[in-house]
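Q: Hi! First time doing this. I have a protein sequence and I read that you can turn it into a structure. Is that right? Here it is:
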Amino acid sequence: SKHIGVGALVNYSSYKTKDIDVLSAGYLEAFEADQATTTAGHYEIWNCMPGLYFNFPVKTFSVPARALAGLTHATTPYIAVDLVADDMDDVTMEQKEAAKNSFGFDIGAGIRYPVAERFAVNLMADYCYSDPDFKIENINHQNNAGRVVTEYHQPLTGVNISVGIAYLFGPR
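A: Yes, that's right. Below is the predicted 3D structure, encoded as structure tokens:
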């Protein structure tokens, strides 16, 4: 159709663990250790979402929109905590990486303004959502002190705002 199409979004995102020093301080206090060093990997998200794309012309510009749904594959980071204290053996605790597939969706809309015969400037905003339920394995956790995460069930959401240049296909 002239204003409705079918397409897909395939994307990858990676986020580093925020405030790693705060996490280390929590382990330091909980275990009454002399030193705590925490290292962590990244959160990673893959999306593959087919769906409908719309383009509504309004005088000199148009309003593009999309509604997509599909598979989200998310991974939590590997986290290692090294503890050093005079009254205990040095220990390294690990929170293993966990992965989960879940349903996800993306909805978005924007404005497209033509600047040449086949080129336009786009301003788009998208909202993404998925809700994986991770089961997390911990290795060498010494006791019940400190933070022990055995499952992680919190929706993963995001807003993306983008500005770009579009090449317009098809008859003009």
